[in-house]
Write a structure and sequence with these properties.
The chain is mostly helical. Helix content is 73%, strand content 0%.
């Protein structure tokens, strides 16, 4: 992987249109919350990752750093927990990605974003395609990730451009004031801010493949700083663009970006804008899933090499000469975890639950993450 590969990998991994939609739904105060999250979370995180990845460019990333600094047990705990968290992250990522793809057919197919069968089937397809490409090898899988980075960023540039044209011609739907942009210091803002901080996570993932990066001590810092600036700017500009086109109360937290682009398409009477943007983001989301699968699989692989997981985790595919066991295992586990999360959420929403039922569901969630051990 060269500089552009790593930069696009970072964009594909970190940048998510769904976070822009969630921020716009929260209102104009999200603009200042983005800035606070960037200054007090994103920048320090980037500096730490640059320092560690340039000083210790080892395969496994944070697992290797923790193992070398604090010992083998702490390294195992860091690597294990980092891997397990993706079992809960992947279902949300896949479902949001498939929901956005429903806009490929325009307004006529937008209702599929709420269709559970479509979301479930699409999530399976997206996840297993990403896993398969990464088993074949990074030399093939990286093109999905590169396309993912480009196809995630381009629709947001389209969104910002059409919003600017609409603002110049007919003004903004949202009335921006200094008082409205500043954060509202209440518990809702305190609860929402971590979501925006979480939207900036993922820069550490490329470091898990440090030994597969050309000149990692030079390439990783440049790519991290470059992608970091691009990501922070488009998060802020994209949120402003959505609020220019829509009122915050009308923005759906999962697919608000496409609502805004569809609204702009109606103003310009060019339906192709929304279709093109939806196609690009569908590819971008596939790249995001692929990059996360590629990066996270290196962690249990290195733990398996060190014999703290079963030896199968540290094996290389005999034909493709790539990691063969960790990616499929993670995909099966996260699908199981996703189904258990869905059942638990349904019980909580309907009130049809008791303490024993909730405990049983939570233990099944934990058991789902341990099925590969």
């Amino acid at each position: 992987m060269g500089f552009w590969d790593v930069l696009l990998f970072n964009i594909s991994t970190v940048l998510g249109p769904r976070w822009i939609a969630a921020a716009a739904h929260n209102g104009a105060s999200s603009i200042s919350l983005w800035i606070i999250a960037a200054v007090f979370f994103f920048v320090p995180t980037a500096l730490v990752i640059v320092e560690l990845s340039s000083r210790f460019p080892e395969e496994g990333g944070l697992y290797a750093w923790s193992r070398d600094a604090f010992g083998e047990f702490h390294g195992f705990v860091a690597g294990w927990t980092y891997w397990v968290y993706t079992f809960f992250y992947f279902p949300g990522l896949c479902v949001a990605s498939v929901a956005m793809s429903a806009y490929v057919g325009g307004i006529g197919t937008a209702s599929l974003a709420q269709n559970r069968t479509f979301l479930l089937a699409g999530s399976f397809v997206l996840l297993f395609v990403a896993v398969y490409l990464n088993i074949i090898g990074l030399h093939i899988g990286k093109w999905l990730q590169n396309a993912g980075g480009l196809c995630t960023y381009l629709p947001l540039l389209i969104l910002v451009s059409v919003a600017f044209v609409v603002w110049r011609s007919s003004g903004s739907v949202t009335h921006f004031t200094w008082a409205g942009v500043l954060p509202r210091w209440n518990w809702d803002s305190v609860n929402f801010w971590p979501q925006l901080a979480f939207a900036f996570t993922g820069l550490e993932l490329a470091s898990t493949m440090s030994e597969e990066v050309r000149e990692p001590r030079k390439t990783l810092p440049r790519a991290i700083f470059g992608s970091g600036v691009l990501i922070a700017l488009i998060y802020i500009a994209g949120t402003v663009a959505v609020l220019v086109l829509l009122n915050d109360a009308a923005v759906r937290p999962d697919s608000g970006v496409f609502q805004a682009i569809t609204a702009a398409s109606a103003v310009f009477k060019i339906g192709a804008i929304g279709v093109i943007a939806a196609l690009l983001v569908t590819v971008g989301n596939a790249g995001g899933v692929g990059s996360t699968v590629a990066g996270i699989a290196r962690v249990p692989f290195m733990v398996g090499v060190d014999r703290y997981l079963p030896p199968a985790f540290g094996k290389i595919h005999p034909r493709w000469r790539q990691i063969s066991s960790c990616s499929p295992c993670a995909s099966i586990s996260c699908v199981h975890s996703g189904s258990q999360k869905k059942m638990l959420s349904s019980e909580l929403a309907t009130g049809n639950f008791g303490p024993i039922s909730c405990a049983r569901r939570m233990f099944r969630l934990i058991d789902g993450t341990m099925c590969c051990k």
